[in-house]
Amino acid sequence: MARRRALLRRLRPAWRQRLLLVTLGALLCAALAWQVVMGQIRQGLEQSLLVSHRALQTEIDRFRYLPRVAGEDARIHAALNAPADADDIDAANRYLQKIAAQTGSGRLYLLNPAGVTIAASNWAEPDSYVGHDYSFRPYFTDARASGSGAVYAIGVTTGEPGYFISARVDDPDLGVHGVMVVKIDLRPLEQAWAETGQHLAVTDRDEVVFLSSVPAWRYRPLTPLPAATLERLDTSRLYARSDLDGAAPLLPKGATLRIDGKGRATTLRGTPFENGWRLLAATPLWPARAAALGTAALVLLAGLLGLGLADMRRHRQRLIALRLRQTEVMERKVRQRTAELAREVEARARVESDLRATQATLVQSEKMAALGRMSAAIVHEVSQPLAAMEATLTAAEFGLSHAPEKTAARLQSARGLIRRMQRMTQHLKNFSRREVAPLSPVSAVDVARSALALAKPRADAAGVALHCAAPADAPMVHAGHARLEQVLVNLLHNAIEAVDPGQGEVTLSIERSAAEVTLRVTDNGPGISPEVLPRVAEPFFSTKIGGEGLGLGLAICFEVVQQFGGRLDIRSNPGAGADIAVTLPLLTQHDQREAAE
């Protein structure tokens, strides 16, 4: 216990030093992340200011020279020369209306030397400028004094804000003849800025915001306005109806600019514009703060994790040293168990080999038993052709001397009887041999016909009618010819034994679907009782009386069909016969070519 406490006392200073280094590294990385993100923010603000500056400049330049050009028209001069002439005034109104419609400008109107509107593009509208006195507006006084003027203001007639550009109309004889003014609506720029998520604003020479994508900034000064400035703005009525006197400054001393009414810290960038305007762009600082805090947290977490992993590594080395001996013991046990498992695997392999050999022997025994059961019928089938052949040969011998012309027909008949016995013996030979050949494409129709030929003698002896229903084509399956034939013969013999002699009927049909071939054996016997049906496929189970057979027929059939990749289904209703179906996968032409290769 004392040693552990002493060790802990030695480790604590080292842990404090490591923790201090990790904390300093986290703070350094946070500062670096802050600088990187702030640089990106400043670059984004500069780009936003540049694009917005160009957009605002382009919008103003579209109509900058429209008042001067429009003021050169003869109809304008005629209206100024004869303001009481209704025809001249009507011609000037329609001219201004046409120019405003074609150029897409807002309102275009003409002021006489006293500042009263005598013609306007909106002369026919309810809020027409005609007859209104705008002599107090700076754009009128500036145009009279210097030849041109420009100011952003809220319309005293319509209440709608706009940018007013004016140009003096001079007469060679009279001097100042009038002032032409165009009003431009810059509010679409505000909407575009707001839709892109930018926080932009434009201030006039008095640092009053008159355009902004943030509605809360509009018509508010950046800093408190002097009394003289407020009086001048009231006189010119630039921001009428905006309550500029009661508006709180956006940047009072020691405060930060708010976005959307939220007190989040922001950074502000500005660029000068014409007429003393400034274009401002602001963005919140939370991305930089989030990056700094996130970087600090990640570095701190990574450092703590590294310290923890280093400590775990030291503990692990100690554990490894302790477990090496246990590992050696376990390895010895594993080797012993592996040797035991190898012996068990070898023993199981021998047992499986013996089981396969026993199964093959049982199959052959069942086949031999089937041949024994067919022996009486085979003797009957062979004895008939032999007796007939003997009589035919005797008649042929007699005919050589008395009727030579009939001898050839009798010899042909004897040859047919011999072929019949050859076919029967060939079927018996194929049935009795032990097949070891691999699976190959075989014709289901050929196998069915061979099975019927082998079962026919027994069916004839029992007085049972055999029927065959095969399709026009010859579907192919992947199986062993002899083993599939043995399965069908076994099923046919079972069906023959199950029906009543003299009245029984057994049918072997072949059905083909899109992917399968079904060889179905049906009979009209009494069927299989529900108590016996679940056990018919069990080895050594038999319902035959007197010990006939080993009870392995259906069990072997099940095994053989499964080896072919198929299934054997048994269905029966008492009194309605049995239906046994051997279903095998259909072998397509492509599969046949692959098997051949």
Automatic annotation (TrEMBL):
Residues 377-588 form the Histidine kinase domain. Keywords: ATP-binding, Cell membrane, Kinase, Membrane, Nucleotide-binding, Phosphoprotein, Transferase, Transmembrane, Transmembrane helix, Two-component regulatory system. GO terms for molecular function: kinase activity. It is found in: Cell membrane. It is a multi-pass membrane protein. CDD domains: HisKA (cd00082), PDC1_DGC_like (cd12914). The chain crosses the membrane at residues 290-310. InterPro entries: HATPase_C_sf, HATPase_dom, His_kinase_dom, HisK_dim/P_dom, HisK_dim/P_sf, Sensor-like_sf, Sig_transdc_His_kin-like_C, Sig_transdc_His_kinase_DctB. It is an enzyme of class 2 (transferase). The keyword Nucleotide-binding applies. Its EC number is 2.7.13.3. It catalyses: ATP + protein L-histidine = ADP + protein N-phospho-L-histidine. It holds the Pfam family HATPase_c. The keyword Nucleotide-binding applies. Gene3D superfamilies: 1.10.287.130, 6.10.250.3020, Histidine kinase-like ATPase, C-terminal domain, PAS domain. This is histidine kinase.
